[in-house]
Backbone:
């Protein structure tokens, strides 16, 4: 198992735009393996989280791993091709915040995303509600954007302990 350190807010690498994957080679296999191992480890110790973007573990490539009890999905070069006009409020946190605080921000209620899987097959999927929010969050990482960038009201930030007491 090869877990990698997560880059924390303030690290300038988190603000870089990631490069597209061009070759499906050993580098992609290594990124996928490290994302899987690191996300599994974080889910176990933090007791939260469903996805991780490659830039968060130091790979400046457009790769996201989603992992839940019912689905593991590697998204390569994902692009949002359509966003709903309807927005909704969400409490968002991040492994790059060490999941120590949440910000209440607006996200699109639904999105359509095109991406490739690890077998170079193109997919187009609709994501709604919580999955829409999650995929937007992870794609933002690929563009050097953090959830805190959407924060417009300082009253909309909360420590994790308070979030768990109120909302979990």
Residues:
């Amino acid at each position: 198992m090869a877990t990698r350190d997560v880059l924390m807010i303030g690290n300038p690498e988190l603000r870089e735009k990631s490069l597209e994957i061009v070759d499906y080679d050993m580098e992609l296999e290594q990124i996928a393996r490290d994302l899987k191992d690191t996300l599994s480890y974080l889910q176990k110790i933090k007791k939260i989280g469903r996805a991780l973007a490659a830039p968060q573990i130091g790979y400046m490539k457009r790769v996201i791993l989603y992992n839940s009890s019912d689905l593991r999905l590697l998204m390569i070069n994902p692009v949002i091709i359509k966003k709903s006009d309807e927005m909704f409020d969400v409490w968002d946190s991040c492994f790059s915040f060490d999941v120590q605080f949440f910000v209440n921000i607006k996200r699109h209620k639904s999105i359509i995303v095109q991406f490739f899987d690890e077998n170079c097959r193109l997919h187009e999927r609709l994501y709604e509600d919580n999955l829409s929010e999650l995929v937007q969050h992870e794609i933002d990482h690929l563009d050097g954007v953090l959830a805190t960038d959407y924060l417009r009201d300082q009253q909309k930030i909360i420590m994790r302990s308070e979030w768990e007491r109120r909302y979990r």
In short: Residues 89 and 105 are 6 Å apart (CA to CA). Residues 26-46 form the longest helix (21 residues). The chain is about 25% helix and 30% strand. The radius of gyration is 15 Å.
